[in-house]
Design brief:
This protein is of the alpha/beta class. The chain has helices spanning 33-36, 44-66, 85-102, 111-120, 163-173, 181-188, 213-224, 237-263, 278-287, 298-301, 306-318; strands at 2-7, 12-19, 23-31, 75-81, 106-110, 131-136, 141-148, 151-157, 267-271, 292-294. The protein folds into 2 domains: 2-117 and 300-318, Nucleotidyltransferase, domain 5 (2-Layer Sandwich); 130-296, Nucleotidyltransferase, domain 5, CATH 3.30.420.40. The chain has 11 helices and 10 strands. Strands 3-2-1-4-5 form a 5-stranded mixed sheet, with helices on both faces. A hairpin with a 4-residue loop joins β1 (2-7) and β2. The longest helix has 27 residues, at 237-263. The mean pLDDT is 94. It binds 5'-O-[(R)-(carboxyoxy)(hydroxy)phosphoryl]adenosine and zinc ion.
């Protein structure tokens, strides 16, 4: 089955052709991160304008690179949410339009679930369920139990900022470009992770939930002083970055380790842009040497349409009807 995947939840316009859920024939991503850089975060209207300009050329490029025609496509899969409403509508309407024009079925896909499926597209992936799913992205910080593709139980989430958002905001505080995660990782290599004793939040009612707003305030005070009004001595930015990164990532490893015990998971499946972070990968390998760890390939950890097409195939073989054309986008979707 040849699936055209379409992704437009945030600031990446993506289209991809995937065969039978795993074989990626093309994966095209156009990012508008450059225009958001001076705002230190995604500016929704500007992201939408870029999606409008990019969506058709990106789809055409994905089809051309995969050497497929509309006749070859068996299914159109589109990210239906969660995400920015205007951005989602552009991908959704493109998918519906093509579905009508080409007379092909279409299906809406949960973007967060697709982040986890990205790691399952690796040929080395074998059925390790029940698994702990760990989604670490700009919009999500989630622990969940995966019983099977499509069957999830929520374990923990963030009560304030997503982890990637915290990386991006700390990067802005340190004068680094947007998106800040990779810059924080790079700068951290030159710093001492023990220079500052920062701490990640504990959520009283649920020890498996996350809170990063206090950690962000730790960084603000370290950089700008207690009242955020500017500081006299100059701080070593690499030490701040390294201390922040180490604290945030160790918090994820700690809570994931606890979740594995409590929920008797046999492996961990990771998803989301923060999973590109090598320190995160090393910390998990050191802490859980016996555990099967399934990371997304580096080109599939950030937003892309291959994961949407791949999961579209999986959903279609389970429910061959697909979705009706009145399917609405959803800015928020509970995964379980
Ligand atoms: O999954 P993604 O592309 O988009 C969302 O669905 O949110 O994730 C983007 C996030 C950004 O916050 C970015 O700073 C972060 O992933 N990120 C990283 C790294 N690479 C990307 N965070 C930490 N270390 C990295 N190497
Ligand atoms: Zn994402």
């Amino acid at each position: 089955m040849i699936v055209l995947g379409i992704e437009s939840t945030c600031d990446e316009t993506g289209a991809s052709i995937v065969e039978n859920g795993v074989r990626i024939l093309s994966n095209v991503v156009a990012s508008s991160a450059d225009i958001h850089e001076r705002f230190g975060g995604v500016f929704p209207e500007l992201a939408c304008r870029r999606h409008i300009d990019a969506i058709i050329p990106v789809i055409e490029e994905a089809m051309a690179k995969a050497n497929v025609t509309p006749d070859d496509v068996d299914l159109i899969a589109v990210a239906k949410g969660p995400g920015l409403v205007g951005a989602l509508l552009i991908g959704m309407n493109a998918a519906k339009g093509l579905s009508i024009a080409w007379k092909k079925p279409f299906i809406g896909i949960n973007h967060v679930e697709a982040h986890l499926y990205a790691a399952m597209m690796d040929p080395s992936f074998k059925n390790p369920f029940p698994a702990l799913g760990v989604v670490l992205s700009g919009g999500h910080t989630l622990l969940l139990k995966i019983n099977d593709i499509g069957s999830y139980e929520p374990i923990g989430t963030t009560v304030d900022d997503a982890i990637g958002e915290a990386f991006d905001k700390v990067a802005t505080l340190l004068g680094l470009p947007y998106p800040g995660g990779p810059h924080i990782e790079r700068l951290s290599r030159e710093g001492n992770p023990k220079a500052f004793s920062f701490s990640a939040g504990r959520v009283k009612k649920n020890p498996l939930c996350f809170s990063f707003s206090g950690l962000k305030t730790n960084v603000l005070y370290a950089v700008k002083g207690q009242n955020g009004q500017g500081k006299t001595e100059i701080v070593n930015r690499a030490d701040v970055a390294a201390s922040f990164q180490e604290t945030a990532l160790r918090d994820v490893v700690l809570k994931a380790s606890l979740a594995i015990k409590n929920f008797e998971c046999r492996s961990i499946v990771f998803g989301g842009g923060v999973c590109n972070n090598q320190r995160l990968r090393d910390l998990f390998s050191e802490t859980l040497p016996e555990m099967d760890l399934f990371w997304p390939p580096l080109n599939l950890s950030q937003d892309n349409a291959a994961m949407i097409a791949g999961l579209g195939f999986q959903k279609m073989i389970r429910n061959p009807k697909g979705d009706l054309l009145d399917l609405e986008v959803q800015t928020r979707i509970p995964i379980a």
